[in-house]
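Problem: given the chain below (307 residues), write out its structure.
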Amino acid sequence: MSAIIQAEGLGRWYGEVVGLGDLTVNIEPGITGLVGPNGAGKSTFMKVMVGELRPHRGTIRVLGYKPFASRGLYARLGFCPQQDALYEHQTGVAFVRDLLRLGGHSKKQATRDAEAAMERVGLTEAMNRRVSDYSKGMRQRTRLAQAIAHSPDLIIADEPLTGLDPIARRQIIELFQELAAEGKSVILSSHVLHEVENLTETIVLIHRGRLLAQGSVREVRQLISRHPSRVRVTARDPRKLASKLFDQPHVRAVALGADGESVQIETDNVAEFHVTFASVAKDASAGVRSLSSDDASLEAVFDYLVG
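Solution.
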């Protein structure tokens, strides 16, 4: 099956700031998660994909088209941007309808398709309310509705789950799955790995404007598992806890924090650490207060992989 996105040596910068640097990647049909920490270049790549920005270097094809100023592509493409740009005086359904009219739909067809799109994103009861009265999550779903209203072959969504409550998040995840089952392709970005994992096994990792890794979530987690993770625990008696942790085979190093109430642990198997920690803490009777792992963030993982 041919790639829906073909990018080679792609570069885009803003003055001295590099948005994309020599990005080469092919993306196949289906649902693909574009993952990376904030500032990684995800939004820039998406804007180049949809023709909002012209690359300064390299080439890109989207569904076989050069995306910049391509009317043929725009008819087959839906874009849900991260920016909250809606017309406050309009109702949600009118906003979607008017964009369809600009795309060449008749008034009758635009009204029908706009109402159907609002229903698919769970805004049937609110579609005739003014956008200015919408919550952040409702505004996000309205932007998604305009992206799918004309039944495009490819939907590109920039951080589409941001601002949604758990119920709305579940609805949108199910919507993306339904679109994929209908033969549509979806590319969505996120800086939270587990959000994408709920949707697809296929991810593209970008860091500092370059491709870092591509493949299944399992393959990426294998990369992450090689990363020695750091965990911080606060306790009433951190010295007592530290002495017990030294005996654990998966713990590589233990250090007392300068604050006098924390322990910094380095482990080469963070999953095993979390499994055994409860019993260790109970045996130590050290009065554990909190446990956190900054290395669970994509920023830390990506910095490790790049380094």
